[in-house]
Each structure stands twice: as C-alpha cells, then as structure tokens.
Amino acid sequence: MAEEIAIPGWKKWLEGIGDQVGFFINFFRNIFTGGFEWSEFVRQCYEIGYRSMMLVGITSFIMGVVLIVQLRPTLVAFGAASMLPKTLAVSFIREIGPVIIAIICAGKIASSIGAELGSMKVTEQLDAMEVSGANPQQYLVVTRILATTIMVPILSVIGDVIGLFGGFLALNLRDNMSFSLYFTKVVASIDFSDFLPAFIKTIFFGFAIGFVGCFKGFSSNKGTESVGIAANSAVVTASLWIFVIDAIAVQVTSLLFYK
Q1: Which of 32, 129, 172, 210 could form a disulfide with 145 if both were Cys (CB 3.0 to 4.6 A apart)?
Q2: Number of helices and strands (H, E) in the chain?
C-alpha cells in the first residue's frame, strides 16, 4: 500500500499520456471507417460555428477598438499616426486575433463538449450506444473534432475582419480616415507570410479544442461531479495547448518566413 502511494503522480501522468495516445489513434482509425455521420458532422459545424459567431464577433470588435485606442497615443507621439492601420492589421492577423478567438472558443466549445460527453458517460448513454451496435467514437468524437478543426479557422478569419472594422470605427473617433483608404492600407500591409501561418495554426487550435473536449468527456468518472470537472479541465487543458501550439508556431514561422 505504501509503495502505491509513493508513485501515484508519475504513474497517473504516464497512464494519462497513454490514454490520450490511444484516444488519438482511435480517432484517426474511425475517420476512415465506413459510415461517416455526415448529418451529425453538419449539425456540429452549425453548433460550433454559427452559434459561436456572435461571441467571436463581439470579442473581435472590442479587441480592434481597444488596440487602436491603446496604440494611437504612442504612434502619435512618434509622428506615425498614419501607421495605425498597418500596425493593427499585422498584429491582429498574425497573433492577437487567432489566439484570442481560440481562447474564446476553448472556453465555449471545449467546455460544452466536455460537459455533454461527460454527462453521456455518467448516464451510461455511451454504453447504451455500444450495446445497440453504434460506434460512439465515430458518431460523437470524429464529428466534433473535425467540426472544430474546420470551424475555428473560419471563425478566426471572420473575427479578423470584424476586428479590423472595429479598429476603423475607433480610429475615426479621433481622426478622419475614409473607409477605402483605411482598408487599402490594411490590405497593403498584409503579406502572404502574415496570413498563411496564422491560418494554419488556427487549424491546430481547432483540433486541440475538439480533441481535449472529447477526451475529457470520455474520461469522466461515474458521478455527476465528474461532469463539471471534465468541463473545467477541458477549458484549462485546451487553453494551455493553444499557448503551446502558438509558441511552437511562432518559432517555426520565424525560421521559415522571417530569416
């Protein structure tokens, strides 16, 4: 008994890593299994994408406004007020937009998936699906992970556009710049090396959000308390993975595009 208490930390950690690897392998195996649930996939795209659009739009708009308000005094002090559209566009599209939107999606989507699947696990609905011959991995996991992988990048692009529009409105509270001039400067300042890496990393953000939410839900223990634990753990873990992926993406991008 004393020996079991002495090593639970690293043993539990290794078991968790093994469970995640097994879950990851089962996910890819079920992608290529016949009978893909297209109707559930489309429903999840609607739930994850469309129902998150309002929250993403409001957050992006506020971030665009706040960035212009915060950047303007500094750039004006250096006589570079005309650089506001370029500064906002590059910073928002490269880093701020994708990360903030991914964190918002982690809070909303990962917790929702974790709580939903956790409650299904607690009420033995997953066992009932297996007994009836259905494949819960294919029906519940594959559809949700693929939906988040596709919809989070789309939400990120929409959020970028809304954030830049919010920056335009905030800029015109103090200055006078036409809509066409503002977006001409924005488009001129954005390069292929700015948009592509940011878009690619949002794909990994979406996958991490869906994977963590599904894994935490499927890993719930018996009892209603575990549902809340699964939802909370899904948000924390997904947010951590977003920052880890972002740190890796920044290093890779700097090596490939900004030598």
Answers
A1: 210
A2: 13, 0
